[in-house]
Amino acid sequence: MTDARRLGTDEAAFIAAVRSDDTARFTLITERHRRELQVHCYRMLANYDDAQDVTQETFLRAWNKRESFEGRAALRTWLYRIATNACLDFLEKRNDRTPVPAGLPGADSELPYLQPYPDRMLPEDPQESVVARETIELAFIVAVQHLPPRQRAVFILRDVLGWPASKAADDLELTVASVTSALQRARVTMREQLPGRRLDWRSPATHELSEGERGVVKSYIDAHERNDLDGLMSLLRDDLRFAMLPDPGTVVVGAKDAVDGWISGGLFQAGYDDWRCITTTVNRMPAAALYRRTSDDPEYRLLNIAVLHIVDGKIAELTGFDATDKPWLGLPPTL
């Protein structure tokens, strides 16, 4: 979605709402941008709860700064500026929002604060959604976290949103030269973090799951519901990367080590042998919601979300999220 799409209409209506101190009209106009601003904050923060909070902070700041809007830039641009700086302020106050070494060869790092993003909350506009998958997948979100906050903001504004250098510089109160330099450094880091993946984030990319991906998720769910350890093992690549969040220190590299850990944790044994699962999607990725029933409970209760990165028909990365009492995915708590 380009700024020109509503340029003039939104700006005039916004200024009129400000002059009349019309909070209802102000809310109606700004709410149109909530979903895309929330995705922007999520890319900056890698945490859905925090993205929601900072997006709300963005609207509060917009209301408090409403008199400063003169219509010289698009309202969308003005809101992005506020959201970006709200994210930077958030990150400045937190010293727990950087990747930490995983301590395993080939595991690189882990983000205990990483949360999945429910697809139902992605922007509905098809032009926003068409680039959403490769720039919202977990691997991309994790890679972006390796950038220093201001460099991260430059990269997202320039290479994801496609803003010109002058516009990004104005947004971040930097010089064009500083933005260009920061972008060059960010691109080097992203190439290191995402080897073998395309780096032209602004060109169209599919956001639909393939039939192959759907088939692997179905097989993964069937294996769980049948307590089929061999079937589960057959779906995993030998170099599987597994992490269970938000617990730190859970990164495992290698399918055998991952499965051994699951078995030692009780998988498919008493108490962990009565499963019902449903297919879902988060971060434009295939996922399974795992519900467990124990002997003293008549209902299956949501336990984990397993997000799968599938390569050549096998699971290359499996990121598990504790889903207990997590209503933000919009999943039923029981089956």
UniProtKB/TrEMBL annotation:
Family annotation (PROSITE patterns): SIGMA70_ECF
Annotated protein name in UniProt: RNA polymerase sigma factor
Residue stretches making up the RNA polymerase sigma factor 70 region 4 type domain: 140-189
PANTHER family documented for this protein: ECF RNA POLYMERASE SIGMA FACTOR SIGG, RNA POLYMERASE ECF-TYPE SIGMA FACTO
Highest taxon above the source species: Bacteria
UniProt KW keywords: DNA-binding, Sigma factor, Transcription, Transcription regulation
GO biological-process terms attached to the record: DNA-templated transcription initiation; response to stress
Family the entry assigns: Belongs to the sigma-70 factor family. ECF subfamily.
Presence of the UniProt keyword Transcription in the record: yes
Organism listed in the record: Cryptosporangium aurantiacum
Quaternary structure and interacting proteins, as annotated: Interacts transiently with the RNA polymerase catalytic core formed by RpoA, RpoB, RpoC and RpoZ (2 alpha, 1 beta, 1 beta' and 1 omega subunit) to form the RNA polymerase holoenzyme that can initiate transcription.
Entry GO MF terms: DNA binding; sigma factor activity
